[in-house]
Amino acid sequence: MHSQEELLDFIKNGHKQYLPHVSIDPVIFGYSDQKLKILLLKWKGLEGWGLPGGYIKREEPISQAANRILEERTGLKNVFLQQFYTFGDSHYRTHEQSLKEITQEQGEDILKGSWLFERTLSISYFSLVDHSKVNVTTDFFTYDYHWFGIDEIPELLFEQNEVVDKALTTLRLQLYHQPIGSNLLPEKFTLPEIHSLYETILDKKLDQRNFLRKMMTLGIIKKLDEQRSIGAHRSPFLYQFEKENYEEALKQGIIHAN
Amino acid sequence: MHSQEELLDFIKNGHKQYLPHVSIDPVIFGYSDQKLKILLLKWKGLEGWGLPGGYIKREEPISQAANRILEERTGLKNVFLQQFYTFGDSHYRTHEQSLKEITQEQGEDILKGSWLFERTLSISYFSLVDHSKVNVTTDFFTYDYHWFGIDEIPELLFEQNEVVDKALTTLRLQLYHQPIGSNLLPEKFTLPEIHSLYETILDKKLDQRNFLRKMMTLGIIKKLDEQRSIGAHRSPFLYQFEKENYEEALKQGIIHAN
């Protein structure tokens, strides 16, 4: 947790360290036990739920900022994290109410003209992590967290339901074109394992045989000459992601546009 | 053109009207005579080429800002314009050299601490227009323009070649999933017309029969019970975009993810 002193310094002087007017707000999807969830933090003062977020340091490349913020909130490094949209139409974050609550004892003087009350555009990323491996850390403005199933997301602060919806749409659209699931499966996995992951993310049944054909045709996975022994008469073949293949394909635009 | 007075006011006071630290930089693709081009402006002082751009007004929704900037540069309204990425890794625009040149007579005092020297993230959009209909207007920092063929783009200022490359990749990836070409064709068009547009954008030959089948399967276009008479024995059938169809499909994520 942060001290009150740190918080007051952040309110008064944060803009010397961070760029004002832009925040990074990752939508963190968690997959575990065949369920897709999303990480939300509970805000002080506002008593509602919102996405974890953070600011970009003045000299920090934004992709580095996004990775840093994800690590600060979840403890995870090197996971799939992708920018998908910058929101700035109806999406105005203001910390005013929350800060009034937090700084009650200090009176309101300290809040006057704080950079945190300025209009803030939100550069949004999404990530997909194994949520059983996550250690969540709240930030200055939040005091609790919860992994919500994607079918039970409450009304969010700062009109962030729009952000979550677009993240989910993008995740599903890109599922066949990016190694999105690669950090949720063992390096070598069985067909049922990846099949179940895809069914969960897309929230629908996929015929296993068609699914396999599609994955092989797209060149996303390859079958190994190796089996996993899971019983006397059961030793399914193992598969592996073919990262290079579809990174190349994506670059050349041949996956969609052929 | 802008007066020197306006320019000096923009340098000194622009941040009162516009958000600092973020600009909108549209990659404007022009299609005409079966050629795909891109609009570049020539910068004062820097003597190089760069994308047209602009800033977001303090209370202006960013999609509105993007449309305004496109209209200011091209005179066009209601054309396809889509956000595709926010650059902020290596992409630091600075107006310093350019401004020194422009404000030579004023000395350098006026430039001190100007908001235009601050690090600026670039929210990038792409657009596709009929470039024969465009009236280009340069901005404060530029004095000439040219439509470059996409195979003859020079090295750009502010590392913007990366922006152009990503715009082109995105345009090609989304060509079958969005009504991207709809403002480049007559409302009712022939198969050769749309076929030629797609071949130009993708920069490759497409078998006409397969192309038609794909467009019909995706539900992007529909065949009308109507022909265009273009000669004694030539009256090709007409087609029309099915906007609603694939907007719906895109929303549900069924175009890619089935």
From TrEMBL, chains A, B:
Superkingdom in the source lineage: Bacteria
Query: Cross-referenced InterPro entries, in alphabetical order?
Result: NUDIX_hydrolase-like_dom_sf, NUDIX_hydrolase_dom, WH-like_DNA-bd_sf, WH_DNA-bd_sf, WHD_NrtR
The Nudix hydrolase domain sits at 19-172
Name of this chain's protein: NUDIX domain-containing protein
> What's the source species for this entry?
Algoriphagus aquaeductus
